[in-house]
Amino acid sequence: MKKILAVLLGTGFMTASLYGCHNSTAVGTAPKGQASDKKIIRVSESFALQTLDPHLDYQGWYTSIYGVTETLFHMNDQSTVTPLLAESASANGAVWSIRLNEKAFFSNGDPVTPDMVIRNLKEAGEINFRFSNFTKYTYAVVDKYTFTIDTGTIYPMLINDLASPELAIADLDHSGDKKTGLVATGPFVISSFEPGGTIEVARNEQYWNGKAKLDGAVFYYMPEAGTSFLAIQNGEIDTYTSVTSDAAEQYRKEPETYTLTTIPATRLQFYILNENRMNASLRKATNLTIDSKAIGAYLNGTVSETVGPFGPSASYGKVTKAKPDVKAAKALLEGDGYTINSDGYYEKDGKVLSIHLAYYAARSLDTLAALMQEQLKEVGIHVVLTCEEDPDGTYIATGDFDIGLFCMISDKAGDPYYFINCTLADGAPYNCGGFKNDQVQLMIKELETETDTNKRAQLANQVIQTAIDEDAFGYVALFNKITVTRNGVKGVAENNPFDFYFLSADTDMD
């Protein structure tokens, strides 16, 4: 097992010794001739932003990271929706009443109005298919600060949707086509934008929610993790996220220079057990064999083992699963009539117990596949691996697998419905392993319209617990959000599990 991981990790990560020593370039050096006494934080980003339009695709994630755009609601560090540009929201059946924060202004001094918010939501729905439902709603302005959204049917997840960074509120009258210019509400404004390259922001001097502590920030496009490592070692940047395990190990050795923050985030590694091809005993034996804790250890801090699809701090993340038990797994297989052959594999009627594990190579699933193959081999199950480029167009669509690996964001915006509906509802795209449970379907239907937060959590926990107990899925690990900062840098959303936050008015540096 360790030898396999040494090869896998050796090809995926550069070791710290390759990068050399760092120099003593001062933190916060200003770009392009700006005064050196200004507080300018320098950051590396692995994504090349091509347009500033926050409503298009996932662009809003990055304008949010830059501290330029804001939404009506915000996800806090505990994955709870909190008001931001909105002051409050309440529902009466399918009609939501939303009151805006009276202090909210755009960076040009114009107020955020109900009419402008409605225009933003409609535009986002028109150009971003993931929010196309916003083109179907009925909107009405009530007064200077209040408007309503009629969703047609009861939809309790609306404020969670409104916290999505793609639904940022911009001044559509003064942002042009939003490709290279953007007037929004955040604590920073774009001062220089190079599509596919460096982006600079400066303090929004008219920020409605308090003066930003920084004068500005520079985001450099660095797609390779090794480049970011070298840049921070050389004093050319001050912070970045998505730190590799090798780099993290080096930072831990230099506590006098760096602060490393690691928290479980929202992107989940999981597998689907195909009930159409595996009986209950084999599925349970598989789940009793896969050791998430060992996998997390071998992946060296880049993931955190998980029991269910949601973080344990969430009210809807309170589920349990049996601990790995190889002896119990073997007993289940032997109870089905399997015996160990001379090669160490179980067989019955002269046929080796062999299962087909399908995966794709992104998000460390190639490493996970190799680890699972090795763990199942140790218990006596032969595993054949198949790597596909497009899982949605192959094994997810066809069901041609015994175990199917997948990775997706499980907690999209502080509510469990999205993931549950995608993976456990009848006919859902990732319920492709034959899971059927009438009681679960009734609970999912109830979850769709339940407005009480505590009841929603209770329903979600019941649904996920059933999927675990019936060995329909195996939830392995949540990717960690790993942030490194030079000592003295603080407030870069390092404790927030969502990837789309970084700069805020509270971001600071000594």
UniProtKB/TrEMBL annotation:
Annotated GO biological process: peptide transport
Q: Which UniProt keywords apply?
A: Signal
Looking up Gene3D superfamilies in the UniProt record yields: Dipeptide-binding Protein, Domain 3, Periplasmic binding protein-like II
GO terms for CC?
A: ATP-binding cassette (ABC) transporter complex; periplasmic space
- Keyword match Signal: yes
| Entry keyword Iron | no
TM region(s), chain numbering: none
Solute-binding protein family domain: which residues?
80-423
Q: Which GO terms describe its molecular function?
A: peptide transmembrane transporter activity
The protein's matches in PANTHER family, at most eight in alphabetical order, are given as: OLIGOPEPTIDE-BINDING PROTEIN OPPA, PERIPLASMIC BINDING COMPONENT OF ABC TRANSPORTER
Protein name per the record: ABC transporter substrate-binding protein
Q: Which organism is it from?
A: Lacrimispora algidixylanolytica
Task: Print the organism lineage.
Answer: Bacteria, Bacillati, Bacillota, Clostridia, Lachnospirales
